[in-house]
């Protein structure tokens, strides 16, 4: 049996509104073979968009979500256990906590190449053999 081709991995992103951050993130997502279906700047909008767009992956700046950031990861995984969550944070202390909360990976905003690699792995896993 051959592989089943899927469209690009779709991403919903919670990210700061700065042009530089958005441009860098957009490049990282594209290099990972994924497509941003929506970008939001508040976690409340993220929940609404997650339900409306049904993305394959949610990328979120966990520190931007405030004290509820790690809880948000758990809620997003609970809403759709098949959806992956990737967190981005400058605080290395949040990396392990993010993964424990259900994120597939935690990456630094200073190394968005890692985000591209994670998205590429997720896209490759979506192809069934």
Describe the model:
The longest helix is centred in the last third of the chain and has 14 residues, at 112-125. This protein has a single domain, classed as 3-Layer(aba) Sandwich (Rossmann fold). A 5-stranded parallel β-sheet has the order 2-1-3-4-5, with helices on both faces. With 129 residues, the chain is α/β, with parallel strands linked by helices. It has helices spanning 19-31, 43-53, 69-79, 93-101, 112-125; strands at 9-14, 34-40, 57-61, 84-88, 105-107. α1 (19-31) packs parallel to α5 (112-125), α2 (43-53) runs parallel beside α3 (69-79) and α3 (69-79) runs parallel beside α4. α4 (93-101) links the parallel β4 (84-88) and β5 (105-107).
Mean pLDDT: 86
Looking across the biggest beta sheet, what order are the strands in?
2-1-3-4-5
CATH topology: Rossmann fold
Radius of gyration: 14 Å
Strand fraction equals: 15-25%
How would you classify the helix and strand content by structural class? alpha/beta
Q: Which ranges are low-confidence, i.e. pLDDT below 50, for 5 or more consecutive residues?
A: none
Could you say how many structural domains there are in total? Answer: 1
What is the CA-CA span between the terminal residues? 7 Å
Q: What characteristic shape results from the CA principal axes?
A: globular
The biggest beta sheet reads: 5 strands, parallel
What would you say the CATH architecture is? 3-Layer(aba) Sandwich
Fourth-tier CATH superfamily name: Response regulator
Strand and helix order:
EHEHEHEHEH
Number of helices: 5
């Amino acid at each position: 049996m051959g592989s089943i081709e899927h469209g690009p991995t779709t991403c919903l992103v919670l990210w700061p509104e700065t042009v530089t951050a958005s441009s860098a993130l957009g490049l990282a997502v594209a290099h990972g073979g994924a497509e941003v279906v929506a970008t939001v700047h508040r976690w409340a909008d993220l929940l609404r968009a997650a339900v409306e767009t049904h993305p394959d992956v949610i990328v979120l700046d966990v520190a931007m979500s405030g004290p509820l950031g790690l809880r948000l990861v758990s809620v997003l995984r609970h809403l759709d256990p098949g959806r992956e969550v990737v967190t981005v944070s400058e605080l290395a202390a949040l990396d392990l906590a993010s993964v424990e909360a259900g994120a597939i990976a935690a990456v630094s905003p200073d190394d968005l190449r890692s985000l591209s690699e994670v998205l590429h792995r997720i896209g490759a896993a979506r192809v069934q053999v």
